[in-house]
Amino acid sequence: MSIPFIGFDEGEALLDWISFTDALAASHDLPKAGIGDTFLYRDPDTLLSRSAWIDGMGLAVKTANVFPGNPGAGKPMINGSVCLYSDADGTLEALVDFHLVTKWKTAGDSLLGALRLANPAAREVLIVGAGTVGGSLIEAFGAGFPQAQIRVWNRTGSKAGNLCAKYPGTLHAPELETAVRAADIIVTCTMSSEPVIKGEWLSPGQHLNLIGAYRPDMREADDEALRRAQIFCDSFDTTLDHIGEFKIPLAAGTIQRSDVLADFYALSRFQAYDPDRITLFKNGGGAHLDLMTSHHILQKWKAKA
After folding, report:
1. Closest Cα to residue 104, out of 76, 75, 132?
2. Short-list 132, 166, 165, 195, CA closest to 186
3. d(CA 198, CA 284)
4. How far is CA 48 from CA 44, 84, 193, 268, in A?
5. CA diameter of the chain
6. Bridging pattern class, strands 171-172 and 229-233
7. pLDDT tens-digit profile of 101-156?
8. Each residue's pLDDT tens digit, 270-297
9. How far apart (Å, rounded) are the C-alpha atoms in residues 132 and 117?
10. Which CATH number applies to 103-285?
11. How far apart are CA 97 and CA 195, in angstroms?
12. Could you report the per-residue pLDDT of 74-111, keeping only the tens digit for each?
């Protein structure tokens, strides 16, 4: 029997954001994943393999290679794939497009956090950052909060304008502080090492959803935002000791480990929206989410077949 390869366009046609977040939530009812990362370098190129095993779901290895010189030759800088293996006997079940898995995992992870913490009647969603992830977030949060006006801010305003032009009804926010103060939900997807969101701009009832920071030296929200908010994340294992968003303020004593109230393995502790509090969610990613996402895609593909 041939092993299926599920490409980007084929996979996109099978998915919707709400059923996907439901699947992510249900996946966290299974035993906690074992995860591991491997990096190989050949300056300036990188090979990253992320693996996960969830008892009752299966195994996945997501491999990404980064060749910074490729765009100059008209080729994608990042390429890769996800291999899914059977939980029963370890046989290869499918290959899934890397970009498909990454898109849905990243945006869906943050959408699940927002659906559990933010005002369900949110009228204003602000996306901070106009890269590839920004476009995915417009789609995801547009599905999760269909009544909301989505605005995009970017340090280079023309990039925000170009992204908005691809999504009719999305508006460019020209000034960050004003847009943050007016939003019900703020979602950040920048590459900043210095905080771009100030806690003094936030008000009770708002939800701040952080995606961009992934290194120990990176942050998108300042200490005041953390002090004022009730804090949640997708995984303690991939955020607390690895990403500057938490690692730096924990080391400085700005917040304590107990201030991070729950991750997706304790979704029942994600408290329903309260207009008197600010909530903060950190999207840290992880190979277990790649496995959960790929498994959902494969199940949808099998149902269609």
Report:
1. 132
2. 195
3. 20
4. 13, 16, 22, 33
5. 59
6. unpaired
7. 999 999 999 999 999 999 999 999 999 999 999 999 999 999 999 999 999 999 99
8. 988 999 999 999 999 999 999 999 999 9
9. 25
10. 3.40.50.720
11. 33
12. 998 889 999 999 999 999 999 999 999 999 999 999 99
Distance of alpha carbon 105 from alpha carbon 99, whole angstroms: 10
> Is the pTM value of this prediction over 0.85?
yes
Residue type for position 168: P
End-to-end CA distance of the chain: 14
Would you state the pLDDT for residue 5? 95
CB 285 within 8 A of CB 213: no
Mean of the pLDDT values across residues 56-77? Answer: 93
Q: Per residue, what are the HEC states of the chain? A: CCCCEECHHHHHCCCCHHHHHHHHHHHCCCCCCEEEEEEEEECCEEEEEEEEEECCCEEEEEEEEECCCHHHHCCCCEEEEEEEECCCCCCEEEEEEHHHHHHHHHHHHHHHHHHHHCCCCCCEEEEECCCHHHHHHHHHHHHHCCCCEEEEECCCHHHHHHHHHHCCCCEECCCHHHHHHHCCEEEECCCCCCCCECHHHCCCCCEEEECCCCCCCCCCECHHHHHHEEEEECCHHHHCCCCHHHHHHHHHCCCCHHHEEECHHHHHHCCCCCCCCEEEEECCCCHHHHHHHHHHHHHHHHHHC
Beta bridge partners of 85: 59, 92
CA 81, CA 61: separation in Å to the nearest integer?
8
Give helix 287-304 / helix 98-117 axis angle, nearest 10°: 100
Ranges of each domain in the chain: 5-101+288-304, 103-285
Structure tokens belonging to residue 128:
């901070």
Q: Hunting for tokens 């998915």 — which residue is that? A: 15
Tokens of 255: 């917040």
Per-residue pLDDT reduced to its tens digit, 265-277: 999 999 889 999 9
Predicted local distance difference test score (pLDDT) of residue 1: 63
- Architecture per CATH, 5-101+288-304: 2-Layer Sandwich (3.30)
Q: For residue 118, which amino acid is it?
A: A
